[in-house]
Structures are given as C-alpha cells and as structure tokens.
Design goal:
It is a single chain. By secondary structure, this protein is α/β, with parallel strands linked by helices. It has a single domain, classed as Rossmann fold, CATH 3.40.50.1820. The protein has seven helices and eight strands. It has an eight-stranded mixed β-sheet, sandwiched between helices. Strand 7, helix 6 and strand 8 form a beta-alpha-beta unit. Helix 4 packs across helix 5. About 5% of the residues have low confidence.
Length: 261
C-alpha cells in the first residue's frame, strides 16, 4: 500500500509541471504619480527568465483582444506585458472619445514615448523576463506607439506594428532605431494612405534600418480585431485569414530575434 502511494505521489509530482496553466494578472504601476494598470501573462512551466514582449493596446485601451494576444504569446514561451498608455480606468467608451484621446498622444510624441518607455521598464523589472531580450508589438494606435518606441532609441530587439499608423513628425529619429522593424499592413487601409506608407519606407531606407513591410491585399484597418466587425466598407474590419497570416509572420520574426536553444 505504501509503495503504491509513493508511486502515485511520484507520478503526480512528475506530471504537475506539465499540467501548469498560463498565469495571468493585472498589475499597477506609477508614471509621474499617476497609477496605470497593465496585464501580464506567462507560462510557469518555462524555467528561468525568458524574452519579454511588450504589448500596446488599440485606441480604447487594454481590451479582450490585447489580453488574448498576451495569453497566446505566453503559450509561445514569452512573458507578455500589456502596458497601459492612458492610466488606470481611463478607457474611452466611444470611437469619438478614443479618437480624441489617442489623437492627443499622436500630437505629442515625447509624451507617447515617455509612457511606452515606462511600460518597457516595468516589464524589465519582472523576475521572469530576460531584460536583455525584449521586443514590442502593438495594434492600431499601439502599432504607432511601438514604432515611436523604436524611434526613441529604446534597447529592444525588434518591434511589430499590426495595422498601425506609420507617420513620423521627425523622420530623422529613425537613425536612433537599434532593433529590427516589422510592419504588418492592410493594403487597402484607408486610415494609412499610400503616401504615408511611401514616406515610412523612405524613412527606413534613409536610416538604414533592418525593416520589413508586409502588405495584405484584402485587409483594411483593424484586421486582427474581431470587435472591428466584418464590413470592410467602413474602413475597419476583422479579416480572419490576414489575422492568422500576420500572427505567423510575427512568430517567424521573433524566432529570428530570439532563436530557440
């Protein structure tokens, strides 16, 4: 009987790490005395530190879509930290309010950079994160934000912009970019005109950045977000195939940045 019990305990002990789930939690942090609320996801089966991926939200703040992206990144073996650009409980409840708030940050790039850099530093403090191996992804407003993070000269291995704005009031700042850049863009996105895309390409070339730009032919704005609906005539719509393809492109990019042992 004792032998059977010992065998059961040994088997349970061996299997328990494999049964571990993705861990997630909200975290509060302060920027200039203002409380911000982020979201963390990681796999506690992974031993030691691992690359940290900063995730930046769309124009309405941290959403279910962003939290789910963090979970998927955790399943890939990374720690994902969704940073809060706006501040705790600041969540626009309409497109008009979101446009006004996100627009205020786009007009004040130093303020936007300060917020995303603060989020990056918070992520680097986490014990599960290898602070020397970090990257960032962002959606829409967040895509714009991670490009500004790169232009600030932040020490990140790379950034990925999903259907983000590409404009820069200071194109010369691209010379500060230390990591690689991947832009995943809807080819018929009315919010990012061809002239903006062309200017971005020139900016990257002039600064000799290691960059990639993928055009998805059938996609408009917000192609990764189910909440965007399914009517592309409105300019923003979810596109399932493009969402899958762009996620795979991001995965390949991260494997290049952080090769598996």
């Amino acid at each position: 009987m004792k032998l059977r019990l010992l065998l059961i305990l040994a088997l349970f002990s061996a299997l328990s790490p494999l049964m571990a789930a993705i861990q997630e939690k909200t975290v509060e942090y302060s920027i200039d005395g203002v409380i911000h609320e982020g979201f963390i996801a990681f796999d506690d089966v992974v031993e030691g530190s691992r690359p940290g991926i900063l995730v930046i939200h769309e124009w309405k703040g941290i959403s279910d879509h962003v939290r789910q992206s963090c979970r998927h990144l955790a399943e890939l073996g990374y720690l994902a930290f969704a940073a809060d650009i706006y501040g705790k409980s600041v969540r626009p409840d309409s497109n008009e309010a979101a446009a006004k708030l996100s627009g205020s940050y786009k007009k004040d790039r130093p303020r936007l950079r300060a917020k995303v850099l603060a989020g990056l530093e918070e992520m680097k403090k986490l014990e599960q994160v290898d602070a020397k191996n970090t990257a960032a992804i962002g959606y829409c407003f967040g895509g714009t934000t991670v490009l500004e993070l790169a232009r600030s000269g932040a020490d990140v291995a790379g950034v990925v912009s999903f259907h983000g704005g590409l404009d820069s009031p200071q194109p010369a700042d691209a010379k500060n970019i230390k990591g690689k850049v991947l832009v995943l863009h809807g080819a018929i996105d009315p919010h990012v005109p061809d002239s903006e895309v062309a200017a971005f390409m020139a900016e990257m070339r002039d600064a000799k950045v290691d960059w990639q730009l993928v055009h998805y032919g059938s996609a408009v704005h917000s192609f990764t977000s189910p909440a965007a609906g399914d009517n592309p005539s409105l300019g923003s719509a979810y596109h399932e195939l493009t969402a899958r393809r762009s996620w795979k492109a991001m995965q390949a990019f991260f494997l290049e940045l952080f090769p598996k042992p």
